[in-house]
Every structure is written in structure tokens, then in C-alpha cells.
Amino acid sequence: MWNVLLVEDELLARSGMKAIVDWEGNGFHLVADVSHGQEALEIFRRHRVDIVLTDIRMPVMDGLALVQTIRKQELPCEVIVLSSYDDFQYVRQAMQLGVRDYIHKPTMTPAELVNTLKKVAEELDKKRSIEKYQQLITDVAGASREALLNKALKHIVTNGSAVLEPHITRMLHNAGIMDEALYLCVFRILSHRGSGSEYTPFLSEEETVHSFMRKHMEETDRSPVFLKEKNEWLLLSPACPAKTFHRFAQYADRFGWQLLWEVADQPGDVLQMHSVYERLSRELHERWEAAQRNMRCHPLILKALSYMHEHYMAPLTLEKVSRYIHVNPSYFSRLFYKETGKLFTDYLTSYRLERAQQLLLRTDLPVYEIAGRVGYSNSKYFLKVFKKQFSMTPGEFRRNSAEAEVNNVHLCPQKKKPSE
């Protein structure tokens, strides 16, 4: 059904055209009839108009001014003008403005009016079909370009940056990928209940990620790039994604998923990111295996461990974590020891020191800054705890590790058993 707007200042002529045509029977809906162009523009604000049937000479705003305004505002409709014997000069101007057809009012018959409307409707249908096809081609091309770009990015990160095709390099430059340092984050998602459970999360893993992506894109000017590589997800972001992932972890938890992630300590060139990816993927795989082993743990302890792993760099206490999982601190302490075999403070200390080791091995950060990054505001206390745990200072650990790497020796310092 095509919507028609009739614009005619002569009341008798307007009433006659409304009466002599079976609008609905011929596939048209007369959305309104008005007396001049200004009223017609008001109708456009409230209704979709496909065809305008307008007189040329009218008060307030004539037909030519109406057509000029329609074209200037790029309103999606076609125009048919109604002319009298002495309107030839006006009709020529109207045709130059792109009106689709004209009808001579003094000799107009119902059949001529209907045929003209149908001819314009057919042309309008063809035009809109072409526009839809062109938009479809544009959308497909855009989606193909995005898919190709994502495929290239994934290959560079996961396999190394071999010689790139020129058009791929141009795409990366045009997307801004080559012009800025990016953070890399590798993450996995697993069910809180374990893979062998009959429990099915409300959203699938992919749906959870894409749902969060849409939510994140609505709230930020620059969205990160999410990629899928086998059983891992990759994220490339110009801003450090740590805060984003804390929110993501809370978001995933609502749908029955636990988020495990490793993020690069500093941004880098995407072409040089393969070694960073290998390290993050290896570390994440170790955490993944540990999480799979822990799936037999009580769900409350799994939730507590996930929270501790995400917030180990902040001040954490048994009371704070117990509040997070909504249980009594005494009960939580007993349950934690039963499920992990470690006291809460011993587990937290071990986890923080493992993260400190990683920073010592892969960064040049001073020891006091590493202490702060793993949750120790007092660097002297950090030195004391580290030496007690590994029988060497952080500086000694870093030097010994560097020497071992030079000599191609794998260093694995012997940990002391924490006091239970």
C-alpha cells in the first residue's frame, strides 16, 4: 500500500479527486489532503509519504517551492504535479526539479489519475529495490572487509607477521591498527558448574561475549576488537582492558560463566605481538587446567577464587571476600581450607608472589612498583615475604632467571611450603 499526499488549494477540486478514485482498491492510501505546501511539510513530520500529488499555484507555499523543499531535505518520495492550461512554464520548472509526471487538471479522468499513480508507484518500487540491493552489496562488502581484517589480525597475532599482502596492509592502516600501540588480552570462559554438569548457562559462551561487546560499544567511543582462536578469545584494545575485564567478569558471572584472562603488561605493535600471545596463552592454559581441576570445589569457593584472581592487586581480606560471596567469615575460612588445602592468607600470598615472579621475568619494572602491582603497598614487607617464600630476593630471582635464560637453563626455584 502506497501512501499518497494530496495538496490542492481549491476545496471543490480536492473533494472531487478524493471521491472519484477508489484509493484503497487500487493499492493506495490517501494519508492526508491539505491546501498548501506548508501544511504538506507538516504531514511529512507525522507520516510516511510515498507520492505527493500537488497543484502548482497555491497560497502560502506553492507547488514549486514545495518540490524544492522536498528535494533539499531529500525526502524519500516522488511528486506528480497538477497543471492548468496556462501552467506550461511552471510545469517545465517542476520537471527540472525532478517531478515524476504531471496531469492536466481540466481534462483529467479517474482512469488517467489512477494510471499515472500506478506508473509512478511502479517506478518508485524499482528505485527502492535497487537501493535495497545496493545497500545489501555495501553491507556484504563491509562484513567481508571486517571478516578479512579480523582474519588477518588473528593470523598475525597467533602465527607471527609474515610478509603481508599490500591490500591487507592498507586495510590495517585504514583501520588505524598500524598507527597505535595496542594491549593484547587472551581469555577463556568456563561454566561455574563444570563441563560434565547437566547445568546449561542462560547464554552460550559466544552469546555472552557478543552481548557484552554490544553493551561495551554503546558506552565507549572506541571499541576493542574481539577475535576467536580455537578455545580462546583474543582482545586488542588501545586502552588497558583491565577495568573492562573486571566488568566483563561480573557480567559473565550473571550468566553462569567464569572468566579467566591474561593481559599484556604494556601495549605494543600488533606486528610484534606473536611472542606476547604465546606467553599469555601458555599462562592462561596453566590457569585453565588448574580451574578444571578445581571444578570439584564448592561453587562458593570457585566464586571466591575467581574474585581473588581478579582483585589480587587490591587490598583483600577474608572478611571482604566472604562478604562478596555472602557467607559468614568463619564458615568461609573453614570451607576455603577444606576445599583448597590452604589457609586464605597463604593462598593469597602464593598467588600474589606468582604474579610478581611473572612481572620480574617479563618486565624491567623496579621491585617497589611490582610490589604495588601485586597488592603490597609496603615494598620492604614484599621483599621479606618474597625471600621467605623463595629463599632469594626479587633482585636475585631476576638475575638468576636472566643468567639461566642466557645459558638456556630452565630455572624453577623451590618454593617453601606455607605454614598451615
TrEMBL record:
Query: Is GTP-binding included in the keywords of this UniProt record?
Result: no
Which keywords does UniProt give here? Cytoplasm, DNA-binding, Phosphoprotein, Transcription, Transcription regulation, Two-component regulatory system
Q: Name one GO cellular component term.
A: cytoplasm
Compartments reported by the entry: Cytoplasm
UniProt keyword Repeat, yes or no: no
| GO BP annotations listed | phosphorelay signal transduction system
Tell me the PROSITE patterns matching this sequence: HTH_ARAC_FAMILY_2, RESPONSE_REGULATORY
Q: Which residues form the HTH araC/xylS-type domain?
A: 302-400
SUPFAM superfamilies from the UniProt entry: CheY-like, Homeodomain-like
Primary localization class, coarse: cytoplasm
* Ranges annotated as spanning the membrane: none
Give the matching SMART domains.
Answer: HTH_ARAC (SM00342), REC (SM00448)
What molecular functions are annotated in GO for this chain?
Answer: DNA-binding transcription factor activity; sequence-specific DNA binding
User: Ranges for the Response regulatory domain?
Assistant: 3-120
The name of this protein is: Response regulator transcription factor
Its lineage opens with:
Bacteria, Bacillati, Bacillota, Bacilli, Bacillales
